[in-house]
Predict the 3D structure of the following.
Amino acid sequence: IAHHQAQGHTITIVSSSPIELVEPIAKLLGIDNVIATRIKLDENGYCVKEFELYIYNESKPIEVKRISEELGIDLSRSSAYSDSDTDRPLLECVQFPHAVNPDKKLRAHAKANGWEILYFERPEALGDTVATRAANNPWVQAGVGAIGAAVLGASAVAINRILNPPQIAQS
């Protein structure tokens, strides 16, 4: 994330988790754009057990294309990162898809299509930073628990990211 931020790239977190959990984490990471599931609320602000917007599988690229048009982002110069085959439609809507610590199906698809495959075997310092900042923020604590240990732990890619312009530096 820091690499893309330093280059002035637009970063959008795309997640099937509720926006109330994703936005505080995005804010801590310095990311302004979030596409996440929205729960429908009644006039008193209570959940009515329906989705206003459910971000999963095929809906991810639809929303990514929508926000890209709004922000003037060219997806033919953009990258996406994911660890799950359920995000294949998202990865296929950009020029530079990256499978990060991919599940078995995504790894096979990435290999077959020549996509870059990245592996993170240890937590990055970012996790410690987020954990420290989250210590006094109950929304972030709840979000981290719901989104999973991957944000703070071994994977570092529980949340998908859409980036513009292309490619991260090879290490």
Observations:
- Residues 138-171 have pLDDT under 50 and may be disordered.
- The longest strand covers residues 10-18.
- The helical segments are 2-6, 19-28, 59-71, 88-92, 104-113, 125-134, 138-147.
